[in-house]
Write a structure and sequence with these properties.
Oligomer: single chain
Shape: globular
Radius of gyration: 29 Å
Structural class: alpha+beta
Number of helices: 14
Number of strands: 29
Low-confidence stretches: none
Distance between the termini: 27 Å
Strand content: 25-35%
Length: 559
């Protein structure tokens, strides 16, 4: 039954006070979800219908490419995570059982699936193979936000490929990529595939699938033929006009001027004519200077990947002791290791002199200090993409990711096979994740209007929202009841608003919930032998003759 009078669908006039994302506001207002705690959300019946529909699309496309469904536990022994080095991840929930054995609540399942494959796969004849599951994940998220977009408990589809070599991995990687495209298309999303960082997953390469929308927590660099997460994007910087070169650096008084913008205004130069000096502390190496153009920002992920180690910002007292006063730092005669961003080209910059109230001008990076060059800046809108084209920066929701793991997990967990010659080799793996809740949120963000949700038909909680404006016992209500039964008999998913509520409340709720087609059975229309149908996405209105309204409604859904 799907009569609204008997359905747990508590709609609200106003969104939560702390809600910023459109999807957060509307999912709460439309009665899809309710919060239990920070980052912990309960799916109410309508929301769970949407989630199940998204999962059904995912299952169909995984099975289409020969990926076999299984189910692995959320609660896992810590041993495998210790072997892969991921037990130290801060966001990993850690606990002990009553015997004191260390356990984890899994945030992903590479360790578990590799454990099983290591014990069952023996020969090259067992490969290739792809497995997936849809399972709850736990993440000790420090800053839950935006409703279901960043939570501490969530459902993920994880798929894993197991191959004999990199060539096999490449084939399965593209099979998964094609399946992802079909999933997002079927769910009615606008999306793009972008290069990304491998992050905590490790491996040799990764791509993300992004759904553009203002509520997104990711920034994507886009240009014709180019798309990359800003975390890893590279581009040719916009040019900057530098002052005439000097034979040697010259000191210039800059009393009290500790910011690039202040010194730039004092010297009449653009911020891009400056070198920013950022001291960091690298474990085992001590203080290292990172240099950027004055108008650029440090990309910490690029820096970590380039150094292949972690770092932290140097504290003021460390800087004062080893280099000079904060606000007047520079690389010349610093005596410290230096990493220079690749965009620092040219031969005449201004930088700090490591003395109070003093800067140097005419600094030539090729002449005045030695440095290791690395791309460590964040690309900016207006830069030139590889192959040409101007970069634009767009915010987006990450809705899926795929990773070439290689032997990142198979080697520490002993997942090997014997090849045709009897030689033992590590299994080559890939990992492929999708967040159903993120697909739901992205669909809402991309389609919503000022009245509420506008669902893509494939994932709408119901296809038709039937509204009766009559009261129980009236002839018009009997006509609406009959149409409801006809729609159900035709196999249509319909929610029927048979409540004893006012027309305004009913129609407002119908627009808020956002089913693809709304049918109103009102006294005026029924007197003329018709019901009124409105397409939620386009607003197109239709009068359907009562005698074949169910069939006509089906044809509108199929158009």
């Amino acid at each position: 039954m799907s009569r609204l009078s008997q359905t747990f669908l508590p709609t609200l006039k106003d969104p939560p006070a702390d809600a910023e994302a459109v999807s957060h506001k509307l999912m709460v207002r439309a009665g899809l979800i309710r919060q239990l705690g920070a980052g912990l959300w309960t799916y109410l019946p309508a929301g769970w219908r949407v989630q199940r529909k998204v999962e059904a699309v995912i299952r169909a496309e995984m099975e289409r490419i020969g990926c076999q469904e299984m189910l692995m536990p959320v609660l896992q022994p810590a041993e495998a995570w210790e072997k892969t080095g991921r037990y130290a991840i801060d966001e990993l929930f850690k606990l002990e059982d009553r015997k004191g054995s260390p356990m984890v609540l899994a945030m992903t399942h590479e360790e578990a699936v590799t454990y099983h494959v290591a014990r069952e796969v023996r020969s090259y004849r067992d490969l290739p193979m792809m497995l997936f599951h849809l399972q709850t994940k736990e993440r000790d998220e420090p800053r839950p936000r935006a409703g279901v977009l960043r939570t501490r408990e969530f459902t993920m589809k994880d798929a894993y490929s197991f191959d004999r070599d990199e060539e096999g991995l490449a084939r399965n990687y593209e099979l998964q990529a094609e399946a992802y495209g079909r999933i997002f298309d079927r769910c009615g999303l606008r999306w793009y595939r972008v290069e990304s960082d491998v992050g905590m997953m490790g491996g040799s390469g990764a791509d993300e699938y992004m759904a553009p929308c203002p509520a997104g927590e990711n920034e994507v660099a886009l240009a014709p033929g180019y798309a990359a997460n800003v975390e890893v994007a590279s581009a040719e910087p916009q040019p900057v006009e530098l002052p005439a070169p000097l034979g040697a650096p010259e000191e210039v008084d800059t009393p009290g001027m500790t910011k690039v913008e202040e010194v730039a205004g004092h010297l009449g130069l653009p911020p891009g004519a400056f070198i920013k000096t950022l001291p960091i502390i690298v474990e085992g190496r001590g203080m290292v200077l990172v240099l950027l153009r004055g108008d650029h920002r440090l990309n910490e992920i690029k820096l970590r990947n380039g150094m292949k180690t972690d770092f932290r910002q140097a504290r003021p007292e460390e800087i004062e002791e080893q280099l000079g006063p904060v606000g007047y730092l520079g690389p010349v005669e610093s005596g410290l290791p230096i990493i220079k961003d690749a965009a620092l080209t040219g031969s005449s910059y201004v930088t700090g002199a490591n003395q109070p109230n003093t800067h140097l001008r005419g600094v030539d990076p090729a002449r005045d200090f030695e440095a290791y060059e690395m791309d460590v800046r964040t690309v900016e809108a207006g830069d030139t993409a590889p192959g040409g084209g101007t970069i634009e920066i767009e915010t987006a929701i990450e809705i899926g990711n795929i990773f070439k793991l290689g032997t990142r997990y198979s080697e520490p967990l002993g997942a090997t096979y014997l090849d045709e010659t009897g030689v033992e080799k590590p299994i080559v793996m890939g990992s492929y994740g999708i967040g159903p809740a993120r697909i739901t949120a992205a669909a809402i963000e991309q389609g919503a209007d000022e009245r509420g949700i506008v669902w893509p038909q494939a994932i709408a909680p119901w296809q038709i929202h039937l509204v009766s404006l009559a009261k129980a016992g009236e002839s018009e209500r009997e006509a609406a009841d009959k149409l409801y039964e006809e729609l159900r008999a035709a196999g249509v998913e319909v929610i029927y608003d048979d409540r004893d509520a006012g027309p305004g409340e009913k129609l407002t709720d119908a627009e808020l919930i956002g089913c693809p087609l709304r049918i109103v059975a009102g006294r005026r229309g029924l007197a003329n032998g018709v019901v009124e149908a409105t397409e939620r996405a386009s607003g197109a209105e239709h009068e359907l003759p009562l005698e074949d309204a169910a069939a006509r409604a089906l044809s509108l859904l199929d158009d």
